Amino acid sequence: MSEAKEKKPAYKPPKQKLTKTYLKRYWQLYALLALPLIYLAVFKYLPMRYIILAFKEYKLNMPLSEMPWANVRGETDALKYFKQAFGNVDFRRALWNTLKLNLLDLIMGFPAPIIFALILNELCFKRFKKVVQTIAYMPHFLSWVIIASLCSQLFAPTDGLINSLIVRMGGEAIPFLDDPSHWVGTYVGAGVWQSFGWGSIIYLAAIAGINTELYEAASVDGAGRFRKMWHITLPGIKPTIVVLLIMNLGYIMGGGFERPWAMKNNLVIEVAEVISTYVYKVGIQGLKISLTTAVGLFQSVVGLFFLLAANTISRKLGERGIW
Amino acid sequence: MKKKVLSLMLAASMVFGLAACGSSDTQPAAEPAAEPAATEETTAAEPAAADTTEAAGPDERGMQDGKFVDTRHITVELYDRNVDGGTEAGNNAWTQWIQQQMLDRYNVEVEFVTVSRWDEATDINNLLASQSAPDICYTYNYSAIQTYANMGGVIDLAPLLDQNKDLVPSMFDWLGEDVIYQDLDPNAGTLWAIEGKRNEICRINTFIRQDWLDKLGLEVPTTKQEFEDCLVAFKDNADTLLGADASKMVPLSISYDVGWRAATLIESFMDPAITDKEYYVNGYDSRAFTQNGTKEAVRLLNKWYNAGLIWKDFAVHTGDDTTEDDMIKAGFVGAFIHNYDYPFRNGKDSINATLAAQFGDDAKFVAINTFEDKNGGYNKYTYSNTGDRKVFFPATNDEPIASLCYLEFISQPETIKFLQIGEEGVTHTVDASGAIVIQEPDEAHHDWYQNSGKNIDMTINCNGLRLDTEELTVQSLAFAYAEVDPADVQDAIKVALVDAKTPKTPSVGDIQAETEGTDLDGKRDQAYDKAVVASEADFDSVWDLGMEEYLAAGGQAIIDERTAAWEATYSSDNL
User: Fold this and answer.
1) Which helix (H) or strand (E) holds B430?
2) Interface test mutation site (partner A, options B289, B316, B398, B515, max chain A beta carbons within 10 A)
3) Domain B204-381+503-569, classified CATH 3.40.190.10, yes or no
4) What is the number of structural domains in chain A?
5) pLDDT one-digit tens code per residue, B333-363
6) Which member of B34, B125, B552 has the closest CB to residue A285?
7) Does A35 reside within a domain?
8) Binning pLDDT at 50, 70 and 90, where does residue B46 land?
């Protein structure tokens, strides 16, 4: 908190006028900046005009502007597809599952890399640390399809390695994949396993940036390992943690497609169907483009609100937001 | 200065690079209407162009002596089954033969667009949405075509056929008016797709390991109870049958697709006296989910599952996962229900050939009739021989005439015969009785490998063997599978036809509700799977809940509309 107070009278750069000399000197920087801007415009902003499909009847043989407004037997009802979505039990279930699985992911998955980074930071053997780090990064490079088939090899009810070991030792097979509540555990666990190593990189970098004099001074004052962790390392990486938390909250309504798609099966569908898989199944496979555009739009808007709210709260608490 | 020039060039080149990527990516989506409009223009322009030529020149289609004057180009859908040891789906000796024939006969260049057999629906959706679907598409699912048509994505074939009937005599010969116009909407007069025909109507069989029965001294089961006793015997004698692998014993294996993989059982619970109307009304779904009797069949499966007679992991393996096949081939499975010829498919890789190679010639699956219906017969359904894969032309097809020529070519008996059996000595031999015996081509002729049995993926409106005469066809059917005992195939065909009924195909027009359900197939499979694994006490509630969800997701609307359409078209409950 004291740190934040010190920051209050923030440094303001002198105002720079866009003069000829200025442009002459720095135009190269602007030219470089143009590239990502164009990328964003072409791939992120231009496609956004198709959002309007959520209010129209999709046709295969018409330009966007000529497609008729969503209608029920000829009577225009631009919100038809939103009503349809919210009247649909599958959508409501997918919405709830998205929130539930992402929240669990956040609770279980967010602290894991921080703890891992703290532990790694305390290791004295450099070589061992490197090896552990490398092994922990590896799962990040596996696609979800591979992880899902690994899971089915390991956790299948009877053929799976783990269950056949348990049964052989006289235990009862655990329904990792075929019982809904167990499946959620497997799903979240696989997510944490896949990402904690990679996620720790950014924290390690933040830790490396902490002034070592602080640690030395603390040692002189008699602080032990845990004291130093608690009072120096953690506060040192707090801004990083907050920024990442905000970004993760922004994803709470989103989330990837591959993971639930690859891991789901018919027996656990009531907990495994999320918005992204629902949109794929109904929209792409079932060609209900307008309905699923409406769902996607709803998802994005709610996601945006989460992000804005998290950012505002963090600024109120005196931390830096992401903007 | 140098640096400045360099950075300017770098920046510029990246900008252009990006811009180029962007525009090529967005353009097709941005101008969806441009192409169909162009289609009309070209078709409209053709007669005009023809007028200016001399009398002896090409006709209004741009054809002279049945051949296009200018080379035309069409694209044709082809399933890619990604066969182990197969050839490239869109480029092999067979596709090249078709291309050469079409060029010689019609001066039409054919380009094959391959789509995954297992994701064909999604692939075609994407191709249609991006305005790049092949000129000739086919799928098994009529309601998908209807959905495309509702979105303006399909050409109405009715006027096209009216004007060009003279171009497709072989197609009319082969399919007949009834099949060609089966999907004609009686009210709107539109024809979105041309149905294909099945020449082999056998559908599903129950298979059991003959050598296991022999080893345990069991008779071939002929009733449900006897079948269950066999399963129990397999389970209890796992040590004898599998030795060290006893724990891997699976008396009966099914997959997540219960409706298909228990079909003979389900159909035995249906009333053999069911009317055509009732069968049709509940027949949207080839998995008999809403038919009367299905619930009791699944209750029996549920009982077997809870008694440990059914593969526990069936529901967690989805899609084209080969775990179950591998398990059957490894010899851990005692019985299964599947396509009538399933153990014989794929030559050396077939289930029976694999088993024989490991455990000797006695080890094999044989087809049996064991699920008795209420009359003591073996009630079951074959495929309908009319109505199979449906061919349609997307709205982006700007060569409808040339595409019709392709349908004509692919309907000709000689074309079908060649694609199915190929050259003597390479892909088939003729035995003493004159029957055609299919064989795998040797290494030197590997390019003639058939990626789908009898190249059914290429003979798009003929599914099943079709030789010069019907007699020869029947005689050769059992020899159509390389590397397995023809006697077993012959038996399987016989078994599949005992008490079998061929569904009638009514022509009642488009059922709109079939395009409106959301994920009905998924719902159906989920309901089936959950009911099988439920505890016996929960079975009723689990089944009823699944059924309720299925009906609410659009199943009921289909049943209602089908009922209404039947009643509007026919006065009797039987055709």
Assistant:
1) strand B428-430
2) B316
3) yes
4) 1
5) 999 999 999 999 888 889 999 999 999 999 9
6) B125
7) no
8) very low
3-state helix, strand, coil in chain A (%, to 5): 75, 0, 25
A131 occurs within a structural domain: yes
Does the beta-carbon distance from B121 to A285 stay under 8 Å? Answer: yes
**B39 vs A contacts (CB less than 8 Å):** none
CB B89 within 8 A of CB B80: yes
Please compute the mean of the pLDDT values over residues B529-550 and round it to a whole number. Answer: 96
Q: Name the band, by pLDDT with cuts 50, 70 and 90, for residue B85.
A: confident
**Contact at CB, A287 and B125, closer than 8 angstroms:** yes
Distance CA B323, CA B374 (A): 35
Nearest to B313 among A43, A62, A158 (CB): A158
Contact status, residue B453 vs residue B199, Cβ threshold 8 Å:
no
Q: Are B533 and B552 in contact (CB under 8 A)?
A: no
- Kindly report, residue by residue over A130-154, the tens digit of the pLDDT: 999 999 999 999 999 999 989 988 9
Residue A18 covered by a domain: no
Torsion sign over Cα A102, A106, A108, A109: positive
A298 falls within a domain: yes
- Asked if the Cβ–Cβ distance from A289 to B129 is below 8 Å, we say yes
- Residue A317, pLDDT > 50, answer yes
Task: Give the nearest partner residue to B519 out of A64, A90, A167, using CB atoms.
Answer: A90
Cβ–Cβ gap A156/B33 under 8 Å: no
How far apart, in whole angstroms, are the C-alpha atoms of residue A34 and residue A23? 14
Within 8 A of B258 by CB-CB distance, chain A residues are none
- Rounded to whole angstroms, the Cα distance separating B435 from B473 reads 8
Pairing of strands B250-253, B333-339: parallel
Q: What is the pTM of this model?
A: 0.83
Nearest to B395 among A50, A61, A269 (CB): A61
Determine the structural domain holding residue A128 and report its residue range. 90-316
Task: Report ipTM for this prediction.
Answer: 0.81
B518–A88 C-beta distance less than 8 A: yes
- Residue B433: burial class (beta carbons within 10 Å; 0-12, 13-18, 19+): exposed
B34 pLDDT higher than 50: no
Closest CA of chain B from A34, distance in Å: 8
**Partner-chain contact B18 A39, CB within 8 Å:** yes
Domain ranges of chain B: 66-200+386-467, 204-381+503-569
Which residue of chain B comes nearest to A163, CA vs CA? B313
Chain B CB contacts of A90 below 8 Å: 518-519, 553
The per-residue pLDDT for B30 is 37
Q: How far is residue B465's CA from residue B270's CA, in Å, rounded to a whole number? A: 30
pLDDT of residue A18: 73
Which class does domain B66-200+386-467 fall in? alpha beta
Beta-carbon separation of A266 and B318 below 8 A: yes
Q: If you average pLDDT over every residue of chain B, what do you get?
A: 88
Which residue is closest to B523 within chain A, CA to CA?
A266
- Contacts of residue B174, defined as CB under 8 A and 6 or more positions apart, other chains included, come to B197, B411, B413, B461, B462
Of A43, A59, A282, the CB nearest to B22: A43
| Each residue's pLDDT tens digit, B215-234 | 999 999 999 999 999 999 99
pLDDT computed for residue B101 by the predictor: 96
Looking at chain B, which residue has its C-alpha nearest residue A290? B151
B15, pLDDT greater than 60 = no
